[in-house]
Amino acid sequence: EIFGYRMHGCRRALCIMGATFTCGFLLLVLYWKPEWHVWINCVPSTIEEADVVLLRTTDVFKRYTRKVVRWVDLSTATDKPEHPLIADEASLLNRAIMEPELKVREFQLQKSSGEKRERERERVSHYKFQNVKLGPGAPRGLDCHETWRAWVTPKEPNIKQLIFGLNVIDTEVTPIWKLLFKEVLNPFYVFQVFSVCLWFAEEYVEYSIAILIMSAISLTLSMYDVRQQSVKLQELVESHNHTLVNVWRKNGGFKEVASAQLVPGDVFQIKESNMCLPCDALLINGGCIVNESMLTGESIPVTKTPLPHLDRSNPWKTQSSGDHKRHVLFCGTQVIQTKAAGKEPVKAVVLQTGFNTAKGELVRSILYPKPMDFKLFQDAFRFLMCLIVIGMIGMIYAVCVFSLSGESAGEAVMKALDVITIAVPPALPAAMTVGIIYAQGRLKKRGVFCISPQRINICGQLNLICFDKTGTLTEDGLDLWGLIPAEENCFQNIHRFNNDNNLPWGPLLAAMASCHSLIILDEKVQGDPLDLKMFEATEWALEDFNTEKQTTAVETETQVTVIKPGSKANWTPVLGIAILHQFPFSSTMQRMSVVTQEIGKDELVVYMKGAPEMVASLCSSATVPVNFSSELHGYTKQGFRVIAFAYKPLKLRGLLKTQNEGREVESDLTFLGLLILENRLKPETVPVLEELRNARIRTIMITGDNLETAVTVAKNAGMILGTSKVILVEAQDPVGSTPASITWKHRNEKTPNGLLSTREIYINVGTSELQSSDYHFAMTGNSFKVIVQHFGNLISKLLINGTVFARMSPGQKASLIEEFQKLDYYVGMCGDGANDCGALKTAHAGISLSEQEASVASPFTSKIPNIECVPLLIKEGRAALVTSFCVFKYMALYSMIQYIGVLLLYWQLNNFGDYQFFFQDLIITTVISVTINLNHAYPKLVPYRPLVRLISPPLLLSVAFNIVLSLAMQTFGFLAVQQQQWYSQDIHSACMAVPQNLNGSLISGNVSVDVNVTGNATEDSEEEDMSEYSSYENTTVWLLSLMNCIIAAFVFSKGKLFRKPIYTNYIFVLVLMAQLGVCLFFLFADIKNLYEGMDLVCTPTIWRVYILIMLLINLAISLIVEETIIENRRLWNFMKKCFKIQPTSSYKKLRGIVLRDSSWPPCHGTDYALQEYMTVGESNEAYCNAVYEHDEDLEDVKNKSATTVQNITIHWTTI
């Protein structure tokens, strides 16, 4: 949301005065809260008059960003104004330019859109801000070619350069001084500076120096880490900014310029291999093969084809049947080979530059990661606010006590300010991050790397894990199981592949040999693993098309790929096959095809392979076997992957038809047969899924494979138990007047004769055992899309028991995870990096099993090539989360213990001594907060998760109870010591106290202590040797509070269930024993110099025993309450039932509703949508980056509803 403001002189003056009176503190507050800065200095205005805009995100965070609107003078880019300045008259830029000044108003931002933060430029046009990150483009493919041939005016690149900026991904390494400035202005460090200055003023030098040293070390490590990441990121993008390209200029031909000078609309030449693309571009002439591993994580060559010259009314993005990405070259990908079309060079037009490219989005996803709405940090902030309020109460108390006692105002203020630094411990944030750092180190040792450490805590709350199938649950490679040819409308005998049984010549062999996207690179055939397996089984050879020219009867100079029979192949009547044209595989279209020609013959043949259902739908029904469905389902239910083949002869003129009209040739084909491939489960899959199931963590499969295959793999892996029922959900888009429909089918396992069947068995819900929760929904990506659009009221209920989601596109995977998150699930996603980037980024915890560059977009990357990393991450996350709670409770209680002691001593105008503070703060608390985090994760996943809220009743009760217990103990000690017979306010020693003799003196050994008439004892030593802090109350309260901190650390450092037992944390146990030993030494030692240095006084032995007894009682009560009440899950569950407390998570509420609904799951039959659930608005967007398209299917629907695309823009809210 965008709000316009205008600077106001009077408000600005008042703000300057306020900053002066507050010694700059007001400026610091306005630095932290940019919206306050705008509200104080500006007045609201319309967008056209605004010189400052305030941006507010629409997510749950509602974060504000302040941006200044500036003027861009375009007159410097042209000596004589031309009209229009931009050749494309319909361009947004022409409408945004204000004439005759030739200026444009703009602002730049890094915005948080919930999914990611983006760096974009906005323009002010017609009183609204519009995003111009997209390059100009005509709506139709034919218009695109005609426009880009001669649309660039001589001055246009210069004008665009001013507007769009340089084509660079600027990841400048921030200077040390700037990093230091930003870190120091952090509220945490500001509070530390305030505390240290106060302590220096009170001559509390030792601890102040210690805090300064610790802060300096922390700052140094933080800046070093940030700088190292900046350096690595700069190395990743450095090559992008230093590339030379040939750009076409009007009346000047191609001209070599630096890639930084590219602007949207520039046409440049791709003239060499191994070229790293410097921008996102649309291929308009020729073809090329690229490596997109930087984006997808899969190092497989991808074929790119030029945008067809099609004269259609729909936008170019939708002309390729939803697969526009095969025409787009993405920034950061590497060109492996180029394929010129005739004499024309390979050309592309720039679509995106800089941070708006695919690589730019990848980089900024690292720079500005998705903010996580994790309640722990919100609750910690609220709790800190409570501590501040308590500290303010203590400040008022201190001012009253010292003022009424006649102390100076300065002394009273100093003592009051001291209270706030005690109530709010400055080391709290740092102490809470120590556990995360330790967990990150342990994960690194186990081969799991993390680029977002704060997400480790979130891993402790994961209760739903989504898995990709191929390469994640199953092995990467596929083994050929067999081939089932089809002839005369019937399937033939299965052909098994072995060394002595090669496939005979025929259309099926030709299809296997030619229908692929393999290439020769470094003298080796490379490509998709499935294509490699299939091609190797034919025993044919692939020749580098760079050495083979087209010698067929087709008149074209296009280079071709040639395949020939190998030495081990069966006899064939052909010399070879030339692949003239290729329609690359599309996950959206679920198929690929090639146009081929036998060498020496004139006939052209189209070969196709793809998903069996898709291939069969494009074949003549007379050629598809009658038992096609049952045969297919029979193999997919057994977990096999099935590929279908088809072919069709063409006439010679058909080649030009394929090049100009797209994939219309893929119709009325002849069905050839099915290729059966086996994809085995990884040995670690079953035990890991069983471990997650025993821990009550839901597991979901999201795959692009066949639905039946996915269900079978889910059953074999244990994701669906053998006794569970599977309900197939099929949804269809509306057709004509028929509304969208959804059909429910029960997946049958076997017929009475033992054969697999696909007969629909309808569910009679009224009498079926499926009324329990022992059933699972399975659906395809298309069904999921239809349900979201037309049956939105059912999607949540389906997800409660949805387990298998097949044929899912990358965008649908991410959308599905978002739907689960809406139900308050903490979702983890584990994938091999191929097509999973969007889902990995969307999930609370994305775990990539790929070591490719795409893994940098995932919060976690595992070198363990299987899913064993998932339970490991959950265990460490739970341990880190419990540790954070433990440290927070301890630090909060420690501050309250010290706070209570100080306020008690303030009553007598006394305080703890400097060395007493130093010992308690540094030697006790700091060491404990560092070592208490060393507990390792418990090796077993228990069937419940740790608490996620600091404000949950058990945690609040634990902290509150221990605060009250500490208050009672210290208050009792403070009052009880004053009632002792040996107590004196004048003489600070009672070590030798014995019963009085007749002469009114106290005798003990060789020491004689006289007693005056007032009952005050005097000692031979001089009273001036005692410090101003020494008193019986000081000694008693300090010793009680000191050992109370040790008791709290012991009680809170729970181990088992989520962490290993406390005795396994050897360093922490040794620290506690050493600290306890020193404290007991302080309690029972009778060393004058030691007591004087620590501001202690000697007390009778019996009183020391009393102190020890009070501490033992405190320990016993704390342990009993913690174990029997705080950690008693049965008790809390019983209380929930007694008070009828309803669950807060949406999925728990919905699960209860579903269990009580006798009509769910739905009855047999088909349901129809009564009305369109989702209203689709118009969209002008004609291009999106492939890696982060979360709603690509929704975009297709939007494009269907839009008849024309006038401008490629994204409109923002106008206020």
From TrEMBL:
<feature type="domain" description="P5B-type ATPase N-terminal">
    <location>
        <begin position="1"/>
        <end position="77"/>
    </location>
</feature>
<dbReference type="InterPro" id="IPR018303">
    <property type="entry name" value="ATPase_P-typ_P_site"/>
</dbReference>
<keyword id="KW-0460">Magnesium</keyword>
<feature type="transmembrane region" description="Helical">
    <location>
        <begin position="416"/>
        <end position="439"/>
    </location>
</feature>
<dbReference type="InterPro" id="IPR008250">
    <property type="entry name" value="ATPase_P-typ_transduc_dom_A_sf"/>
</dbReference>
<dbReference type="InterPro" id="IPR047821">
    <property type="entry name" value="P5B-type_ATPase"/>
</dbReference>
<dbReference type="InterPro" id="IPR023298">
    <property type="entry name" value="ATPase_P-typ_TM_dom_sf"/>
</dbReference>
<dbReference type="GO" id="GO:0031902">
    <property type="term" value="C:late endosome membrane"/>
</dbReference>
<dbReference type="GO" id="GO:0005524">
    <property type="term" value="F:ATP binding"/>
</dbReference>
<feature type="transmembrane region" description="Helical">
    <location>
        <begin position="1035"/>
        <end position="1053"/>
    </location>
</feature>
<feature type="transmembrane region" description="Helical">
    <location>
        <begin position="955"/>
        <end position="977"/>
    </location>
</feature>
<keyword id="KW-1133">Transmembrane helix</keyword>
<feature type="transmembrane region" description="Helical">
    <location>
        <begin position="915"/>
        <end position="934"/>
    </location>
</feature>
<keyword id="KW-1278">Translocase</keyword>
<feature type="transmembrane region" description="Helical">
    <location>
        <begin position="1065"/>
        <end position="1085"/>
    </location>
</feature>
<dbReference type="GO" id="GO:0046872">
    <property type="term" value="F:metal ion binding"/>
</dbReference>
<feature type="domain" description="P-type ATPase A">
    <location>
        <begin position="245"/>
        <end position="366"/>
    </location>
</feature>
<keyword id="KW-0067">ATP-binding</keyword>
<comment type="similarity">
    <text>Belongs to the cation transport ATPase (P-type) (TC 3.A.3) family. Type V subfamily.</text>
</comment>
<feature type="transmembrane region" description="Helical">
    <location>
        <begin position="380"/>
        <end position="404"/>
    </location>
</feature>
<keyword id="KW-0479">Metal-binding</keyword>
<protein>
    <recommendedName>
        <fullName>Cation-transporting ATPase</fullName>
        <ecNumber>7.2.2.-</ecNumber>
    </recommendedName>
</protein>
<dbReference type="Pfam" id="PF12409">
    <property type="entry name" value="P5-ATPase"/>
</dbReference>
<dbReference type="GO" id="GO:0016887">
    <property type="term" value="F:ATP hydrolysis activity"/>
</dbReference>
<dbReference type="GO" id="GO:0015662">
    <property type="term" value="F:P-type ion transporter activity"/>
</dbReference>
<dbReference type="InterPro" id="IPR047819">
    <property type="entry name" value="P5A-ATPase_N"/>
</dbReference>
<keyword id="KW-0812">Transmembrane</keyword>
<dbReference type="InterPro" id="IPR023214">
    <property type="entry name" value="HAD_sf"/>
</dbReference>
<dbReference type="Pfam" id="PF13246">
    <property type="entry name" value="Cation_ATPase"/>
</dbReference>
<dbReference type="Pfam" id="PF00122">
    <property type="entry name" value="E1-E2_ATPase"/>
</dbReference>
<keyword id="KW-0547">Nucleotide-binding</keyword>
<dbReference type="InterPro" id="IPR036412">
    <property type="entry name" value="HAD-like_sf"/>
</dbReference>
<dbReference type="InterPro" id="IPR044492">
    <property type="entry name" value="P_typ_ATPase_HD_dom"/>
</dbReference>
<dbReference type="GO" id="GO:0019829">
    <property type="term" value="F:ATPase-coupled monoatomic cation transmembrane transporter activity"/>
</dbReference>
<dbReference type="GO" id="GO:0015203">
    <property type="term" value="F:polyamine transmembrane transporter activity"/>
</dbReference>
<keyword id="KW-0472">Membrane</keyword>
<dbReference type="InterPro" id="IPR059000">
    <property type="entry name" value="ATPase_P-type_domA"/>
</dbReference>
<dbReference type="InterPro" id="IPR006544">
    <property type="entry name" value="P-type_TPase_V"/>
</dbReference>
<dbReference type="GO" id="GO:0006874">
    <property type="term" value="P:intracellular calcium ion homeostasis"/>
</dbReference>
<feature type="transmembrane region" description="Helical">
    <location>
        <begin position="887"/>
        <end position="909"/>
    </location>
</feature>
<dbReference type="InterPro" id="IPR001757">
    <property type="entry name" value="P_typ_ATPase"/>
</dbReference>
<feature type="transmembrane region" description="Helical">
    <location>
        <begin position="1105"/>
        <end position="1126"/>
    </location>
</feature>
